Structure formats: structure tokens, C-alpha cells
Amino acid sequence: xxxxxxxxxxxxxxxxxxxxxxxxxxxxxxxxxxxxxxxxxxxxxxxxxxxxxxxxxxxxxxxxxxxxxxxxxxxxxxxxxxxxxxxxxx
Length: 90
What we know:
By secondary structure, this protein is mainly alpha-helical. It has three helices and two strands; from the N terminus they run H-H-E-E-H. It has helices spanning 3-31, 39-61, 74-89, and strands at residues 65-67, 70-72. The protein has a two-stranded antiparallel sheet with strand order 1-2.
């Protein structure tokens, strides 16, 4: 396996983790907070620990956009699209 293939695989894994984070974040809005110790709770903590160090620097440059009572995380969208572009170029 070449270096570019490894980088592509890592970027794909990050994209999957970002998708998992989005699903878990929406599950709180749709199903309510997870019970402590539940699978959803543990998955949320794990995915957040991995993705937050990647998202935090982007959020410093691009804070969430407030629209009324809703906040749209532009950092998430920009990071996901940026990784998609990078994977296409590789």
C-alpha cells in the first residue's frame, strides 16, 4: 500500500467519523439525551474525542452561524467538503 492510499484511507475514516458524529448529534435532538453508560452515550463521547481536535481549529476561523434559534456548524461542513476534495485530488 502506497503512502497516498494510506492518506486516502485515513481521510475516509475521518469522513466516516464525521458522519457518525452528525448522526449522534441529531439523535440527541430527535430522541433526547442518551442515558449515561448506554451505547449511544459511549459512542458520542468516543467520536467527539476523535473529531473535536480536528474541528476546533476550523471553528476558530469559522464560528457557527446563528439563524434565529438555530446554529449551523459551518466548520463541520467545510471540513467534510475539504476532505472530499482532498480525497478526489489524491
